[in-house]
């Protein structure tokens, strides 16, 4: 394999061995042998997968060996959106698919945190702990359909807890332990959990954060919680001292009793795992929208839909093989944690890293990747851009000879970050994906049989009829439009919890184009079948009738060595003059001089057009970001258009809530009327 830097030519292309050994090639050979279906290239395969949805998913089910209690019939019996009906009569369980691999010789999980604590868990031990915790939950009265809320970090215990909850047909929901009290309550109050599983604290950036008092506060306001299972992440003796002996002490006014994790997973290895057989559309988990405005949307996905979508993505679009070592750095508050756990569905080893990926330096996570011989390493695009800016040299920090794939998501990965990976990590396959919490899957991703072009995702995913539409609903090629999906996918939400008549669900995705999923991103589909995401469509720059995604402006601005981060908002509003300010974070001790302002303007004018040069440029200390690292363009836009701060942003869902104060002051100084 090799790469070039001419963006008009492939930056990377696969060699013959990779193509032939890939799982997607195995699938295509199987289709030829078992279904008499031959496809000349990926585009032909994709078109068949979206033109004959039923045939594709039935074939994929058979090829991948999905387990169920009865032979599957048709895949799609009602193609309405929302409301599609999949695999009627089929009964299965996510956990059953995981433990198809229970006899594997390689580890199920390897783990390390930033303090250097590490461990390894075999498949047999994972199964034992899941069985023991499931039995404990049943003794607590947890039954099919009950909700179990988790307040846990990216650790093996969280994986065990999820699988135990899912095995008995209860519904899982997790929040990251760095989230604030109101953010957690906004989520868990809606679903009325019966049991909470929580860590006593977490570590990040060299510090330990005790969460015992926060857990007490949560339980006082979650009266439906009857039991707390407490995981001693920081100090078990301190926890016992604070709460009293397990099972003897009420930890909240509501009367919830606490159980120690060690006791909850104590069990005999000979006791079999009792997995509930569930309908295809039985709820698996509840995940949430970003929650920056209003109450978060509690989104319910199904066992069957998630199994199909995640096995498809892991096997065909990430090319994960049994025994691969898979790390996607994520917090439990991000859907990528769920997607990371999906590695178990295809027999990969999960390589979990908990803590700050750049502590004590930007090489920390790369050292973990090298020492654990990770074969697939994924992270948010912001992480790779941070590495680029910091000057880290991954190949000097670690032996990356086992690494063959880099994955990225969360925000658009600019061409220079692709180039940095190829130059500083190695000639690896760059597999950039784009999807969302909303359907727990990917619309766009890669395959190891296609070349990689700088700044461009390789393909639309199999089974995902993704298009770019203009405002009139007409499809576009090589022009920017709304990202839509015009046919159902199995992992689309069953419903939102407590959403009467699916009203909120419909308003969220089907308001602009009835019967068509509108995702809220600007996309350009290239003539060769790849795609480029330009950012959220509701944060798009619209200058003089010319629309532009913000990612292109960021690429131009952040290419300057003085600029660490930036945010732009177009304050075009009916009855007001259009005004577009740009906010920049500069390197320490770097002032926003007149010369630098001129340079930024020149870069934008050159990269985009004169129309897209901002009216003003301001230096700020930090750009507001969500916990998953996304720039909060829309909340800042709403704030500067006059909406009250408390209505546009929830500090508890932010990575840096202190950054809001500057923007609130800026709005007041500009005389923006709040209302």
From TrEMBL:
Molecular-function annotations in GO: acetoacetate-CoA ligase activity; ATP binding
One Pfam family it belongs to: AMP-binding
Keyword set includes ATP-binding: yes
Transmembrane annotation, as ranges: none
Keywords (A to Z) from UniProt: ATP-binding, Ligase, Nucleotide-binding
SUPFAM superfamilies: Acetyl-CoA synthetase-like
PANTHER family: ACETOACETYL-COA SYNTHETASE
UniProt-recorded name of the protein: Acetoacetate--CoA ligase
Organism from which the protein derives: Trinickia dabaoshanensis
